Amino acid sequence: MKQATPQPVRRSSLSSLEPIDTAPFRKPSSARFVWASLLLVWLISLLPWRSWPPAPDLLMLVIVFWALNEPRFVGLTVAFVFGLLMDVHDSGLLGGHVLTYVLATYGAIVLHKRLQLFGSVVQAIHMLPVFVVAMMIPHLLQSWLMGAWPGWDWLWSALITTALWPVADILLHLPQRREDEINSGAA
Amino acid sequence: MQGQGHGTIRLFKRGPAAEVRLVVYVVLALSMMVVDARWRVLDPARQVVAVALYPFQRLVMLPRDLMAGIDNWTNAASLVRSEKEALQSQRIELAQVATHAAQLAAENQQLRRLLGVVEQVRQSSVAVEVLYEPVNAFTRHLVLNKGSDSGIAPGMPVIDEGGIVGQIVRVTPFTSEAALVTDERVSVPVQVLRNGLRLIAFGGNASGKVEVRYLTGDTDLKAGDVLVTSGVGGLFPAGLPVAQIDEVRHDPATGFAMAEATPLSHPERYRHFLVLLVGNSDPATESESSSP
Q: What range(s) does the Rod shape-determining protein MreC beta-barrel core domain occupy (chain B) (predicted)?
């Protein structure tokens, strides 16, 4: 992805002349792959590895990633449903994960146009405040409702989740990338 | 919240739909949080989702359960093998049987002593296994692999061979959730074993500890004292070990003392516990305890 996105930016004046080059990158991911990746990450999130407090929220990462890249399939409703499932699994207050996922997804929808101009690292920098705010608001509300402050581990969680954005970008765009490489190899 | 200003400008293409949905979902999430924190109205909805979630939870836990199953199976095989050897040796020499029986008797006695907890409380109980430990910064809970189908109901005590582990707080048909005694929201009526003093133990501020708060200055409580359940309140049967006092701290500012104790049960070490079916087996004590 790193080499992929700067190219169209640099050649933006020429892009009207060479639409063939940018076509493979704009090719949408298949619905089956989007849903399969969501389901897989959700199942992984049911495993006990998240008991480490600063563990990244992979499910949020993937939901937000697809909300940004494939808004046709993944939006606020998907974020809401998966948030509810995680709330029940974690036996927390209903609505905590829901609020986090919905806010983060909305952040991606708002930044949608702007983020398409950048590579994954710059996208991650943009997403950091979104993740932090999306995680902070439910944490503040929960600690108000429960009368206890859980500490700052969630901030690490947001940081690690952000750091994994470029990795998610590489992994979740693998099917397209392969097609693109095949195409460029053939040409 | 943070993107609201941008949203109205940037998103005219998909604008109202996303904003309206955001507002609806956020309001829904907020009201769910407030309602869930104050009342138990949402518990049926939570149960429905939990039942739908259950097959997936079992699915992802399958590798671990499979390993446990294989472990059991190999143990069973070795058990059968050793038994066969024992039978052969018996056939060879009848005299050996007598010594063998004596050995078994001793072992049986030891096992009975180990199971003493169950005999003492004389309650019907259900053996449960930890399904998983939910990730939650605010609570210390365990999700167990049996639920209301096995007769488990909220309020029932969970014990291991050391004593009280916690209390059932939520049930679904196939799973139940126990709050540990170290959870801040659990309180257990206790008695000091040495002098019979009645107190109430709370989950501690320090993780993995139990506290006894608001002791008057002259309270006879020392480090090393063992707290057992007093039976007051009716839910916990009397005589189950709860915790051992580490230290008693006097606060000169308030005039009260506070004691910190370490639980005698080990929920972090084992995976099998017993749930005492208190309400089911003895409805008389239940109604008695709820009336005052």
A: 130-276
Has residue A136 been placed in a domain?
Answer: yes
- Amino acid identity for residue A24 in this structure: P
Q: Which of A95, A109, A148 sits opposite B18 (nearest CB)?
A: A109
Chain B CB contacts of A110 below 8 Å:
3, 6-7, 10-11
List helix spans (H) across B93-154.
95-114, 116-121
ipTM, two decimals, is 0.72
CA B93 to chain centroid:
49
d(CA B108, CA B117): 15
pTM of the model as a whole: 0.69
With both helix axes pointing from N to C terminus, report the angle between A120-146 and B15-38 in degrees, rounded to the nearest 10.
Answer: 30
> Could you give the CA distance from residue B78 to residue B72 in angstroms, rounded to a whole number?
10
What pLDDT band is residue A18 in, cutting at 50, 70 and 90? low
What phi and psi, each to the nearest 5 degrees, are found at residue A4?
Answer: -70, -50
Mind telling me how many Å the CA of B134 is from chain A's nearest CA? 5
* Coil, strand or helix at B202: strand
Residues 6+ apart with CB under 8 A from B34: A145
* B210-215/B257-263 β-pairing: antiparallel
On whether residue A3 sits in a domain, the answer given is no
**Is A159 part of a structural domain of the chain?**
yes
Provide the 3-class DSSP secondary structure of residue B166.
strand
How far is residue B57's CA from residue B46's CA, in Å, rounded to a whole number? 15
Please, where in chain B does CATH 2.40.10.340 lie? 125-292
Give alpha helix (H) positions in A71-119: 76-90, 96-115
Tell whether domain B125-292 is in CATH 1.10.3660.10.
no
CB atoms within 10 A of CB A19: 9
Determine, yes or no, domain membership for A186: no
Question: What is the domain range of residue A46?
Answer: 29-175
Cβ separation of B18 and A106 shorter than 8 Å?
yes
Three-state DSSP at A178 gives helix
Q: What is the DSSP letter of B225?
A: P
If pLDDT is split at 50, 70 and 90, which confidence band does A95 have?
confident
For CA atoms B216, B222, B223, B226, give the dihedral sign: negative
CA distances from B27 to A41, A103, B21, B24 (A): 27, 12, 10, 5
Q: Where is B155: in which H helix or E strand? A: none
